[in-house]
Amino acid sequence: MANESICIALVSGGIDSPVAVSRMARSGWRIVPVHCSQEPITGSEAEDKTAASLSHLIENLESSGSIDSNLRVVTVGDTLAKFTEPAAHRDYFVHMKRLFNAIGSSLAIEVGATAILTGENLGQVSSQTLGNLGAVEEASSLRILRPLLGLDKQEIIDEARKLGTYDIAAGPELCDALGPDRPTTVADLNRLRRNENAQGGLDELVEDCLKSLRIRSLSSV
């Protein structure tokens, strides 16, 4: 049975998502972390930083028992490469986030989660504009928790420093390796669905990605 206190956390190797995890863990949520690895387009750096940040939180947060000690890793690089075709490329980052949310929703079933947690911050990047957030959320069957949505970036950085995750996450973001020069900021849902249907549909893409699912222990980082 689904438990109101369990959420799937979409955790990247960046600064924001570990801060979001710490906030919700301290609020009493049980966190089940998921990392969508963009290998083989990128290397394992983002996954390694994700694991290190989460391990640090588990060791140092008073509510460390709220963070699952297993990181679920799903490889998505080859799937994302399908959205570099001309018809879909401008929507690449929206497709990326839609894929991540749909994967999270699928994994939520086995752990009884009722929400997806993200580190999204309004307007920080193209996929996080008001015109795109709704299109991203539409791909999830669960509600989305965005505890950092209205924060200033400097506030997030300051909180990450206090948590001790800032230095772990420092370095270039690799999520834009295949992204367009001029990404869309106001998504067209019909166009997004056409792009996804041309690749077999979002459900099929998720199912294919989940074949790569593996568990990485955070206690051994």
Summarize the model shown:
With 221 residues, this protein is an alpha/beta fold.
How many extended strands?
6
Indicate the structural class. Answer: alpha/beta
Oligomer: single chain
Across the major sheet, the strand order is 5-4-1-2-3-6
Q: CA-to-CA gap between the ends? A: 31 Å
Helix content: 40-55%
Unreliable segments of 5+ consecutive residues = none
What is the H-and-E element order?
A: EHEHEHHHEHEHHHHE
CATH top-level class: Alpha Beta
Main beta sheet strand tally, sense and closure: 6 strands, mixed
- Mean pLDDT equals 90
Q: What Rg is obtained from the alpha carbons, in whole angstroms?
A: 16 Å
**Total tally of structural domains:** 1
Bin the strand percentage.
5-15%
Instruction: Based on Cα principal axes, name the global outline.
Output: globular
Superfamily at the CATH H level? HUPs
How many distinct helices? 10
Secondary-structure arrangement, i.e. CATH architecture = 3-Layer(aba) Sandwich
CATH topology: Rossmann fold
